[in-house]
């Protein structure tokens, strides 16, 4: 389960918006709302014009995180401490389990979760539409710092 500190890290980078907004990389789909929600628990995609309360935003994030944790547990072969786990949840929340499951980051974690070269693997994932994004670089650095804290 994600810690309060981990949820705050995730919310800091995802932001909290009560009105739906387009993906910053594409300017269109997927539409996002709350704390990075693109699909509601009902399975319906977020669309332009949608509005949520702050409580709903946190509820949707927790719902999504529960699924993410199940996915992470399926690919991890090692036990992580809380900070390591929170950092990986934030990473997967942003990039998806598919990217994580094929990543060198996961391979290194499964080999040795305390390997210092893991830090650099977070930073590999700082691009959107093939271009480095300052916001993603800052996020990956913060996730790496949190992972090793």
Give an account of the 3D structure:
- With 149 residues, the protein is mainly alpha-helical.
- The protein is 54% helix and 8% strand.
- It has one domain (4-147): Lysozyme, CATH 1.10.530.40.
- The protein has a two-stranded antiparallel ribbon with strand order 1-2. Strands 3-4 form a two-stranded antiparallel ribbon.
- Strand 3 (127-128) and strand 4 form a beta hairpin.
- The model has no long low-confidence stretch (mean pLDDT 95).
The gist of it:
The chain is mainly α and 149 residues long.
List keywords for this structure.
single chain, 149 residues, mainly alpha, Lysozyme, two-stranded antiparallel sheet, 7 helices, 4 strands
How many β-strands, per DSSP?
4
Please state the structural category: mainly alpha
Unreliable segments of 5+ consecutive residues: none
Number of helices in the DSSP assignment: 7
The CATH class? Mainly Alpha
Query: How large is the radius of gyration?
Result: 15 Å
CATH topology tier name:
Lysozyme
Shape verdict: globular
Q: How many domain modules?
A: 1
Mean residue pLDDT: 95
CATH architecture: Orthogonal Bundle
| Biggest β-sheet strands, sense, barrel | 2 strands, antiparallel
Share of helical residues: 40-55%
Order of helices and strands: HEEHHHHHEEH
- Please report which band the strand proportion falls in: under 5%, 5-15%, 15-25%, 25-35%, 35-45% or over 45%: 5-15%
N→C terminal distance: 18 Å
Biggest sheet strand line-up: 1-2
What layout of secondary structure does this protein have?
Layout: H1 4-14, E1 17-21, E2 32-34, H2 54-75, H3 82-95, H4 97-101, H5 104-111, H6 118-123, E3 127-128, E4 131-132, H7 134-147
Helix pairs in contact: 1-3, 2-3, 3-7
């Amino acid at each position: 389960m994600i810690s309060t500190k981990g949820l705050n890290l995730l919310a800091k980078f995802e932001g909290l918006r009560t009105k739906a907004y387009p993906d910053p990389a594409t300017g269109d789909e997927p539409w996002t709302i709350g704390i990075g929600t693109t699909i509601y628990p009902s399975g319906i995609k977020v669309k332009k014009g949608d509005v949520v309360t702050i409580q709903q935003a946190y509820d949707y994030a927790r719902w999504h995180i529960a699924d993410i944790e199940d996915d992470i547990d399926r690919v991890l072969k090692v036990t992580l401490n809380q900070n390591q786990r929170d950092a990986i949840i934030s990473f997967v929340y942003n990039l998806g389990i598919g990217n994580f499951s094929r990543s060198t980051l996961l391979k290194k974690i499964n080999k040795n979760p305390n390997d210092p070269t893991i830090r650099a693997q977070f930073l590999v994932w700082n691009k959107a539409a093939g271009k480095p994004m300052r916001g993603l670089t800052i996020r990956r650095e913060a996730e790496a710092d949190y992972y090793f804290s």
